[in-house]
Design a protein that fits this description.
Layout: H1 4-10, E1 17-21, H2 25-31, E2 37-40, H3 44-49, H4 59-72, E3 77-81, H5 90-104, E4 108-112, H6 118-126, E5 131-136, H7 152-168, E6 172-176, H8 180-189, E7 194-197, E8 205-208, H9 210-213, H10 230-246
Parallel strand pairs: 1-2, 1-8, 2-3, 3-4, 4-5, 5-6, 6-7, 7-8
Helix pairs in contact: 2-4, 4-5, 5-6
The structure holds 3-methyl-2-oxobutanoic acid.
């Protein structure tokens, strides 16, 4: 039987890969039919907990949310972000990744970084941990969200990092805010799928934070497109409930024991 990871890899150049984040079961269950990959992103730090950066997200938080998400996924590949400071050294990274995979039953983990993290990534892959890479803007190490790959130095570094991640055996790479032409060059250069966020249609797939596209956050990021206004729907339901409680319409005998 073809593994879920092989299936994702085989989509390169055949069909665009659809990825979204989820932080809980009900949401994962709702989007699973439409996604190839569901990421439990450490973006949950800012999205759910109002943290200023993803650096405050802990391994325990990721495990708790991922356990919930697991209950909602039937088909998509489930990837969990390894949070900041949990993969600084090969042995520490391996213990933490093993813990995440064992407790959440996810299919793989995502790690930010290229050359600086390559020793750790190689160690993880040698120990059969499926890794999704993440290059370009690295939210765990930067506060500035700006396009990456405009200077020759940045361009060469990004190409080098993509190559070394591919050679190390990662199954795909998220490219965050990478300049369009460079994203195309990298996508043509490597054999594993590139998943873009703010990196143009030249990537093999796209990922966005679900809460952003549903209008649940006030994200001002250039790459965010709002596909629905869920805040409005929630407010509509709450307002109707309020009206019925105040007017004693709810609960009627039908909704009472
Ligand atoms: O944390 C996250 O949600 C992410 C994606 C948006 C790429 O890393």
């Amino acid at each position: 039987m073809i593994s879920k990871i092989s299936k994702i890899k085989s989509l390169k150049r055949r069909s665009k890969i659809v990825c979204l984040t989820a932080y809980s079961k009900n949401i994962a269950q709702t989007i699973d039919k439409y996604t190839d990959i569901i990421l439990v992103g450490d973006s949950l730090g800012s999205t759910l907990y109002n943290f200023k950066s993803t650096r405050s997200v802990t391994l325990e938080m990721m495990i708790r949310h991922s356990k919930s998400v697991r209950q909602g996924i039937a088909d998509s590949l489930m990837v969990v972000d390894m949070p900041y400071n949990t993969y600084n050294k090969p042995s520490q990274a391996l213990n933490n990744c093993k813990k995440v995979i064992k407790l959440t039953k996810c299919d793989g983990v995502k790690i930010e970084g290229g050359l600086k993290k390559i020793k750790i990534i190689k160690h993880l892959i040698k120990n059969k941990i499926p890794i999704m890479g993440h290059l370009g803007i690295l939210p765990q190490s930067t506060k500035k969200f700006k396009s990456k790959g405009k200077s020759i130095k940045e361009r060469n570094e990004l190409i080098r990092d993509c190559k070394i991640l591919e050679d190390a055996g990662v199954f795909s790479i998220v490219l965050e805010c990478v300049e369009s032409k460079l994203a195309r060059h990298i996508t043509n250069l490597i054999k594993i799928p590139t998943i873009g966020i703010g990196s143009s249609n030249n990537c093999d797939g796209q990922i966005l934070v679900l809460d952003d596209i549903l209008g649940l956050t006030e994200s001002k990021m250039k790459f965010v497109k709002k596909y629905a206004n869920v805040k409005k729907i929630i407010a509509f339901g709450a307002k109707k409930f309020k009206k019925e409680v105040k007017s004693r319409k709810y609960p009627s005998q039908k909704h009472s024991y």
